[in-house]
Amino acid sequence: MAAPAAAPRSRARVARRVRIAPIGKHLFLIVLAVLVAFPFYWMVTTAFKSFFEATQFPPTLVPQQWHFENFPAAWAAAPWGRYFANTLLIAAVVTVGELVTAVLAAYAFARMRFRGKGVIFVLFLATLMIPGEATLIPNFVLMSRRYLNLYDTYWAQILPFLATAFSIFLLRQFFLSVPNELQDAARMDGAGHLRFLWSVVLPISVPALVTVALITFLGAYNSFLWPLIVTSSADVRPVQIGMSQFRTENGSQYHLLMAAATLVIAPVVLLYLVAQRYLIQGVARSGIRG
Amino acid sequence: MRLKAAILMAVVLVATACGGQGGPTATQQATEADIDLTGPVAITLWHTQTGGNVKALQDMVDKFNASNGKQITVTLSYQGTYTQLYQKTLSAIQAGALPEVAVGYESFVADYQKADVVLNLDTYVNSKKNGLDKNSLDDIYKTYLDTVRFPQFSNQLLSFPFTKSLLIQYVNDDLLKEAGKSTPKTWDEFEAAARAVAKKGADGKPVRYGWAAPTSASTFNGWVLSRGGKLMADDNKTVAWNGKEGVDSLKLLDRLIRDQVAYVPKGFDYQTDFGTAKVAFVQESSTGRPFFVSSFKQPINWEISGLPQTDPGKAKTVQYGANIIIFKSTPEKQLAAWNFVKWFNEKDQTAEWAVKSSYMPVRKSAADTDALKTSWQKDVQGKQAFDLSGTAVPEPNVRGQQDIRTVIEDAITAVVNQKMTPEDAMKQAGDKANAILRDNQP
Question: Which of A144, B245, B329, B386 could make a disulfide contact with B95, Cβ separation 3.0–4.6 Å?
Answer without folding.
Answer: A144
